[in-house]
Amino acid sequence: MTVPEQAAAATHTDPIAGAVLLMAIVLVAAKLGGDLAVRLRQPSVLGELVAGVILGNLALAGFDGFEPIEDSPAIDFLARIGVLILLFEVGLESTVRQMMRVGLSALLVALVGVAVPFALGWLVGAWLLPDASSHVHAFLGATLSATSVGITARVLKDLGWSQSDEARIILGAAVIDDVLGLVVLAVVSGVIVAADSGASMSYGDIGLILGKAAAFLVGSLALGFLLAPKLFHLASHLRARGVLLAVGLAFCFALSWLSSVIGLAAIVGAFAAGLLLENVHYRDFVDRGEHGLEELLEPISSFLVPFFFVVMGMRTDLRSFADPGVLGLAGVLTLAAIAGKQACSLAVRGGVNRLSIGIGMVPRGEVGLIFANIGMSLTLAGEPIISPSVYSAVVVMVIVTTMLTPPALSWSLSRRPPAEPTEPPPVEATMTAAATTEDEDP
Amino acid sequence: MTVPEQAAAATHTDPIAGAVLLMAIVLVAAKLGGDLAVRLRQPSVLGELVAGVILGNLALAGFDGFEPIEDSPAIDFLARIGVLILLFEVGLESTVRQMMRVGLSALLVALVGVAVPFALGWLVGAWLLPDASSHVHAFLGATLSATSVGITARVLKDLGWSQSDEARIILGAAVIDDVLGLVVLAVVSGVIVAADSGASMSYGDIGLILGKAAAFLVGSLALGFLLAPKLFHLASHLRARGVLLAVGLAFCFALSWLSSVIGLAAIVGAFAAGLLLENVHYRDFVDRGEHGLEELLEPISSFLVPFFFVVMGMRTDLRSFADPGVLGLAGVLTLAAIAGKQACSLAVRGGVNRLSIGIGMVPRGEVGLIFANIGMSLTLAGEPIISPSVYSAVVVMVIVTTMLTPPALSWSLSRRPPAEPTEPPPVEATMTAAATTEDEDP
C-alpha cells in the first residue's frame, strides 16, 4: 500500500461500506424472489425465503461470494429489527378489544397447539429412537411445541388478511404459545439438568418462570392500556417533524426490550405494542394532516422486513436433506409437526376458516432451532440430549414447515373466504386501507 | 441463576434487546430536542445535536446511564446508514442537469474553500505554535480545509431550501471539496512520512490518488447517467411490493460502497446516487399508483437520520472546553475556519444568497476529526504531528463550527430570500412537494 493509499484508507473508507453493499444485494435478491413468487400466485415472502436459500447455498455450487451476508452482524441486526417492525405493524392492525373477542379461541388453540405436538413429538421419539432415554423423547416433544409467527404474520399481511378474526386467533395463540413453550422448555430442561446432576427441580422454579411470564403479559397490557393514550397525547404537543413515527417506534422498541428482559421473545413485546396502540391515540397527529402510523411504517417495513426472511432462507442448509439416515426421522417429525398443529383447528369455535388457523400455526421457524440448539448443549451422562443427526432432522422439519406454510396458507385462505369478515380483504385495498380506515369499535 | 432462568435466557433473550432500548432512548431524545429547537425557531437538527450533547455529557454530572449509547455498534451503524439516507434524499431533490448549471460556481467555491482555510490554518500554526515544524502548520491547514456537509444538508432540508441554487452550489462544492481535501491530506501526509523516513514522495503517488478520485466521479456519473433509466425501467416490471424503494435504496448503497472503496466518503456516493435518479426514471411506478421515491424515503429518513445527529452530539466532550491552555488556539483556529470558508462567498457569481453559501461550508463535522486523528498517528522524529492539546483545540473548532451552523444558516437564509428560486421554498410545502412536483427541465 502506498502512502496516499494508506492515508485514503484511514480517512475515508467507511467501516460500514461492506455492510451497505451486502444490504444492496439482499434488497435486490428479495425483490427478485418476491417477483417470482407473485408471478406464481404465491405470497412474496416465499420468494424472499427462496432467494435466501439460493444466496445461502450457492457455495454448494462452488460460488461463495455471498457467504459474507450470512456472517454479517449488520445484516443480522437489520433482520432482527425487521421482524420487530413486522410484528409491530401486524399488532397495529388489531386492537386489544378485538383480540379479547377471540381470546377464548386463541387460548384453546394455544393449549392444543402445545399439548398435541408435544405428545406427538414424544411418541415419534419413542418409536424411532427407542434406545434413547425418555428425556430425549420429551425434548423432541418440546421442540415440536414451539410456534414461530413471523412467517404466518407476513403471509396474512401479503394476502390482506391481517384484520381478520383468523389472523387475530393465530397471533393471539402464538403469543400464548410463546409463553407456554417457554414453560415447557424450562420444565423439560430443568428435569434433565436435575437428572444429570442428581438434584431435583423444584416446583418453585417452575412457578417463578410462570409468574414472570404472566406478570409481563398482564402488567404490560394493563400499563400500556392506561399509559399509551396519555403518552401519545403528550407527544402530539411536540413540534418537531416525525414525532408520531419516532414515538411509535420507541414504544415498540421499549416493549420489545421489556419482553426480552422478562425472558419472552422480543417479538411478543413488539406485537403487544402494536396491539396497545389504537388509531384514537394518535388522532391528534392525523387531525393536523400527518400520515397515520401504519402508512408511515409501510416504507420502513418494506425496507427492513425482507432482511429477516432472506436471512432465514440463507440459514437453510440444503445439505441437511442429503443424509438418508436423517431423512426418515425428519419426515416423521415433520408429519407430526404438521398434524399436531392441525389439531388446533378442532379447538376453534365455529364461524372461522379453521383449516387456515391450523396451517397458520405450523411454522416452527427459528424458535424450533433455538430449542434444538439448547438440546445440543444439555448433557445427560456425558451425552448431548439432541445428537447431531437428530438436530439435522429438526432442521429439516423447521425448513419444511417454514417453506410449506406460505403456499399452504395461501391455498387454504383462497379456498374459503372468512365467514364474518371485520374488513373486506381484497389484496390491493389493504395496501392503503390500514391508514385510512378507522377502528369502528365503540 | 436458576435452571429455568438459564433456559429462559438461552431461549429467548434477543441479542439486540439492549440495542432496541438504546434506539428508543435516542429516538425520544431526538424528538424532545427537535421540539425545543423548533420552539426557539431553530432547525430541528440543532435540537438533535444538543440532545446528543446532553446524553453524552451527563456522565460529567455523575449520571453514566447513557454511556452504552455511545459505545453501541448498533447505534453507530444506524447513524452511518442515517447519514447515507440523508444525502441520498438531498441528492434526489436535484438533477445532474441542475447541478451542471451551478457547476462552475460550485467548483470555484470548492477551490477557494480548500485553499483559503488551508493557508489560514498554516498561518495560525506558524503564529501560535512557532516552535513546531512547518509540517505541523501544514497539517493544521489540511484539517481546516475539510467540509462536512451532513449538517448543512439537513438544515437546508429542515428549512425547505434543498431545491435552491444555493443548496446545489454548497452540495456540489462539498463533493468536490471531499476529493480535494483527500488530495491535500494525502500529499501532506505523504510529505511528512517521507520526511520522517528520509525517503521522498513521488509525483506518481499524488497522481494516482487524483486519478482514482477523478475516475470515480466521472465514471460513476457517466455510467449512472446511462444505466439508471434502464435499471429502473427493468425494475418496474417486477411485481413484488416495495420494488421502487428497494431498488432505489440498493442503488444508493451500491454507489456508497463504490465511493468508499475508491477512497472517497461513502456519503459522496449516496449523494451521487440521489443526483442520478430523476423522477422520470421511476415514472412507471408512480403511474401505476405507487408513491414516489422521496415520499417513501421520508419515514425511513425520519427514523434513521436522527441517530446520526444525536451520535454526533454525543461525541462532543464538553471537557475540551475546560482547558484554558487549549482554548486560545481553539478560538483562533475556529475564527480561521469560519473566515476561511467565508471567502467562498466571494467566489460565487451573482444572484444567489452568498452569505449563506459561505456559512453552509463552515461545518467541519467528523471529517475534521478524522484528519486530526490521522495527524495524531503520524510521527516526525518520534513526536506526533498533532499533539494532544492541539487535537483538543481541533475538537473545539469542530464542535463550534458544527453547532454554530444551524442557527447561523437559519438566520442568513431568512435574511435574504433566494433571487432565482427554482421552486418556492415554504417550509410546510416541501414536506410533500418533493413527491408531487415533477422535474420541469426539458
Characterize this entry briefly.
Chain A is mainly α. In chain A, 74% of the residues lie in helices and 1% in strands.
Task: Please tag this protein with its features.
disordered C terminus; homodimer; two-stranded antiparallel ribbon; 74% helix; 20 helices; mainly alpha; 442 residues; globular
Tell me the strand order in the biggest sheet of chain A: 1-2
Helix content of chain A: over 70%
| Strand content bin of chain A | under 5%
State the low-pLDDT regions of chain A, or none: 1-12, 419-442
Please tell me about this protein's structure:
The structure is a homodimer of 442-residue chains. With 442 residues, chain A is mainly alpha-helical. In chain A, 74% of the residues lie in helices and 1% in strands. The first copy, chain A, has 20 helices and two strands. Chain A has a two-stranded antiparallel sheet. In chain A, helix 3 runs parallel beside helix 15. Chain A is globular and about 70 Å long. The termini of chain A are far apart. Residues 1-12 and 419-442 of chain A have low confidence and may be disordered. At the A-B interface, helix 1, helix 2, helix 5, helix 10 and helix 11 of A face helix 1, helix 2, helix 5, helix 10 and helix 11 of B.
